[in-house]
Structure formats: structure tokens, C-alpha cells
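Input sequence (135 aa), recorded before submission:
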Amino acid sequence: MPGLECATLTYGHRARASLPRDPPGQTNKGLDMYAVVKTGGRQYRVEQGETIDVERLPGEVGDTVDLSDILMVGNGNDVTIGTPTLTEAHVKAEIIAHKRGDKIIVFKSKRRKNYRRKNGHRQSLTSLKITDIQA
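Predicted structure, C-alpha cell format:
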């Protein structure tokens, strides 16, 4: 296809073709405002209108949550990085649902010792819809 270039990445002695690059001036990355939020011990890159699943947060469905641990805010080519967080930035989100994640099986064993333990775990999650990013 005309206009699509393909870069070649080299890892040691092997070469691999990467995905086609966007033509100059026609990329959509970096145009929207985004933030990197820390909640539940994890970091999430969020944009306005996006839905994410995080660890269970207090509140009822329909409540508004203010996420204040903002590590980074980006708007186009303007990027602001906190040390460690940005105090003036806030992300507002609406609680959509409380749910449970997929079940995982934790199996421990030691060979030749007749030791086997089987446990299951389901994480409690909260679905958030990002409504506003204030920088």
C-alpha cells in the first residue's frame, strides 16, 4: 500500500518487521488529554470517556469518585510529570458497577513430599467511567 512504511527492528542476530507507521501528520496518538492514575497499588493510563476496572472502591453505583494520586498528565506534546504526584491535578470518575473478576487457581506442591494445596481467588472490582481530567 502506498504511504505505509514498515520499520525493521533488530534484536541481536534476528530482524523482525514492526507494525506499519502512521504517515507524518496523520497520527491520533497524543492529541487527547490523558493522565496516569495510581489506585489500588496499580497505575492506569486514562482518557476522558474511558472505562476501567480497578480494585474495589467505597461508594454506590452512580457516585462520583475523585482520584487524586495523579502521576502524570499529558495534553498533546505538553507532558507534566509529578514528583511523585501532581497536587493540583484531579481525575473525576463515575462508579458504573461493582463486580468480581475471573477466578484464578493457586496451586502449590512440593515433589516427593506429599504436599499439595489448592486455593481459588476472585478479586472484587469496581468499574469506573472517567468523566473529567483537570490539570
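Checked by second reader. Residues 6 and 19 are 6 Å apart (CA to CA).
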